[in-house]
Amino acid sequence: MKKKTLYITCGIVATIVGFITLLASYTSPLSEAKKEIKKAENAEELVHIWNSFSKDVNASTSKKIMTAISDRAEELEVEADDMLVLIDHLPKGKKSMNVIVVPDLSRRIIDEFNNPGQVANDQLIIETIWEEFVKISKFKKQSNDFFSVNVTDLDQAKGTFSSIANNLRLDLSEKGRNQPNRTLFNDSLDQLVKTNVSKLYAAALQQPLGADYKFYFRRYLPNQLKTSDLKNNFRNKLVIITDGYLEGENQPADTKIVGFEKELKAAVINGTIDQKIKQLGLSIPTLAVDLSHTDVLICEVNERKIGKGYHFEILQSYWTQWLENMGAKSVTFIGREQSTQQTQKQIRQFLKK
After folding, report:
1. Distance (Å, rounded) from C-alpha 239 to C-alpha 297?
2. What is d(CA 48, CA 56) in angstroms, rounded to the nearest whole number?
3. What tens digit of pLDDT does each residue of 192-217 get?
4. Which of 323, 248, 311, 233 is nearest to 283 (CA)?
5. Which end of the chain has the lower number of beta carbons within 10 A, N or C?
6. What is the phi/psi pair of residue 49, to 5°?
7. At what angle do helices 80-89 and 43-53 cross, to 10 degrees?
8. What pLDDT is stored for residue 24 in this prediction?
């Protein structure tokens, strides 16, 4: 009996020792993945590691592996092309929206003949964009959404824009690490934005200057656009509020119509306006700006009375060709509506898509 008990005891001890040895030698998939990630030297190796370890782990472990890969990619300072490889083959980061509003503060805002009540229209549009931004961003758990109002040139708004610029931007990436988005939004912030939009137009009315969007695209826009990475899946939303005539201060018009009225009007009627602008060599020169992750909305386009019935199509062709040549993800071109409610509806749809 004693011998049998001894055998049983030895068996139990052996089982326990074996189990402890197994535990000591066991390495979790997460630990293994992290070891491999530390040794990775390029994007292809990081993708291979993800493909090898992500299939048989739970969501929590998968998220931790992605964080380790993202951190390693930052350590390696991967080039833009390699980052695209990672973005294409790995799970997308959290969705974030970058809204950029650029109003045309040229003489269109004082042209009551062609654009009656334009300032009120513009302010309503910017307020609608802000309200929709808040609606979309406020109850996201975590995101790095961004909102800003820009001007095409710092000389616009009588050179005072810098003094109010900080009150016309909101960067959710600046909040605390675990701070919910909703804690940043309140009635005081809404009023601050509204007040500073009014200040912007009050200053612009004193000294309206031609809006040089070509200069803005070349000088300022590249720094305003957000690029996706492994942690953030950005979608840029660029809203341009303009009558559509690209006319910088003391410069020839980029949307050339004068001197070509007969040919361009005939092309509008024939449905060949795109081809005619190219044929006449009138296209707006393409700039070295990448809009491939940017949706563009041009709103409040309003043909002048001298071009009623055909300027709209000409302006639409100029803008659309120009933006598409820079790779714009989408271009939405809408005129000044008779109903402001219709304009607001179109803006909301644009920001949601």
Report:
1. 5
2. 15
3. 999 999 999 999 998 888 789 999 99
4. 323
5. N
6. -65, -45
7. 10
8. 41
